[in-house]
Amino acid sequence: MSTVVTVDAPTGIRARRGARIPASGPQAVVWIGLVVLVVGPLLPLLYASLRSKPYYLPGGVFTLQGYRTLFDDPAFWQAVRNTLQFAVLTTVLSVAAGAAFAILCGRTNLPGRRIYSTLLLAPVVIPPLGLIVGWVAVYGQSGYLTGLVSRNLHLPVWNLSSIPGMAVLAAAVTIPISFLTCQSALAGTDTALEDAARSAGAGPLQVIARVTLPMLRPAILNCAVLIFALALEVLGIALFLGPPAHLDLYASYLYKSWSDSVVPDPAFVSAGAVLLLVVVSLLLLVRNRMLGAEQRFIATAVRGGGSYQPLDLRRWRRPLSFLVGAFIVLTSLVPLLGLVLMSCVKALTTLVAPWHLFTSSNWHQVATDVTFRRSITNSLIIAAVGGAITVAFVAVATVIAHRSKFVLRRTIPPLLVYPRAVPGIILGIGFFWSYLMIGPGAYVRNNLWGELIALSVRNITLAYVVIYPSLARINEEMDRAARATGAGWWTTTRRILLPILRPSLIAAFLLMFVTILNDYDPVVFLQKPGTEVIGVTMLQYWQQGVVGPVAALAVVQVLIVSVVLGIGARAIRSARHA
Fold first, then answer.
1. 352's torsion region: left (phi>0), alpha (psi -120 to 50) or beta?
2. Which pLDDT tens digit goes with each residue over 29-73?
3. Which residues pair with 335 in a beta bridge?
4. Dihedral of the CA atoms 255, 260, 265, 267 (nearest 10)?
5. 359: Cβ–Cβ under 8 A, 6 or more apart, which residues?
6. Number of structural domains, the chain?
């Protein structure tokens, strides 16, 4: 698709006016805003961890007592041990399964591999808390299938409320990350080495073990570090599955230490938050070094004129296809059906047939309860407004970073990427203290704007990773042609680059809307009566033993996401053909 830019007489006049407006001033404002939003919340967090008393109490002094209190708490060390075990198991399971699925779908003649490549991404679009509730309904200690296997079939059952059980659920959620990473690595590598191995008489298993897996080693290490870092900050799984076994992970330990106390100990909790932030930041640095070194291990030669012949699985084709399909059904479809069923019954149990327990009371509570209704409304407002503002801001920041001469432009990409590496609960604590300590914070502390800012900053990276590749594909000759007609940087950005980026901007808004709607970690410490959002409301009601209405609210969230994705897909197609 070619793009023709025409400049009529009035436009030329406006371009010359735009050229007289210095671009460096507004660019500096955008940069300062980005620094304040990304780095700003972390400084008050560090300050709070070093004070003997909370900011709102007089008489505090600088001290390391918060860290000493943390290290003296046996529950802290137990949470650390649980988290390390959980993170290692999650990483091993997720990376192994994701790499295996990527190889099966990308390098073999597995039946149904194309549709499997799409269905394996289901956990990405299903709201995470909804998926967790579905898993609990089906596979939990009192889950339907758990009861069916133990009571009716008298067979040994699994224990989802354990470190291995929680790791299995976390792996099912994070497998799309490892699958996409390995799939992208395979798509960018040449198949000549695999062809040569087959020509030498190697079988499919030998080719995969001796050629394909070694080529995937950098990608596997990369996604392993990322998934390990993500596992360190898991909150929802621990809060939903941990209580029956009295298990806490690091994030749930911090959450309970803050919320369960009559007078929270911010220095104690903030110290734990700072430690986790340091660990995750170091892991991010390690991952970035791996990304830099990865290119040295990838063969990127162009394939020959002949088409690549996938590895023949022979008699294992259909059994392996069945296993992949069964995995998708058991990890995504069955929990989703369990979630819907739980929302429509008084109790989901094998002792009574579900059709004898059907009720509309769960949905009636969602429709009439003020908190549930307000949570849905607030989440939609925050997702729509926050998504639009974030995409507009990130679009301008991306153009400044990659299509301007701003002196600090090289610092913008790391600033845009870093927030997603910061654990959501840590970012939430940081924003809590920012709103409390900084004067302008009073204007957003007790309304939706405070939560909107926290959720938008947390997910700002996603908008960048969608917009930047599209901007990189736009020929810079268009910028120079616009400047030749007298257009300034802002005019070029507004009238040429942003219109061309319209499909990517719509896709970025769609991703931001869905992600902000589903996210909850950054606002668990910010939510107040009147500012409820879906995720935090689900957490709070579940902890109170309210199960059916929480499932119904999760189904509402799934339906909203499905509708938005459907509308967004049509909007993107229309923008591309415009």
1. beta
2. 999 999 999 998 888 888 888 888 777 777 778 889 889 989 999
3. none
4. -10
5. 344, 345, 346, 548
6. 1
Does some domain include residue 61?
no
241, amino acid identity: L
pLDDT in tens, 321-371: 999 999 999 999 999 999 999 999 988 877 787 888 899 999 999 999 999
Query: Which letter, b or e, does each residue of 472-482 get, where b requires 16 or more Cβ atoms within 10 Å of its Cβ?
Result: eebeeebbeeb
What is the b/e burial string over 90-107, where b = at least 16 CB atoms within 10 angstroms of the residue's CB?
Answer: bbebbbebbbbbbbbbbb
Alpha carbons 329 and 323: distance in angstroms, whole number = 10
What's the one-letter identity of residue 549?
P
* Euclidean distance between CA atoms 543 and 350, whole angstroms: 23
Residue 151 is assigned to a structural domain of this protein = yes
Q: What is the pLDDT of residues 287-318, one digit of tens each?
A: 777 665 544 444 444 444 445 678 788 888 89
Instruction: Judge whether 109 lies within some domain.
Output: yes
Range of the domain at 411: 22-50+74-298+320-577
Q: Which CA distances in Å does 473 have to 179, 476, 478, 491, 509? A: 25, 9, 12, 20, 20
Question: What is the residue type of 541?
Answer: Y
The type of residue at 74 is P
- The pLDDT confidence band at residue 188, using thresholds 50, 70 and 90, is low
| 261: CATH | 1.10.3720.10
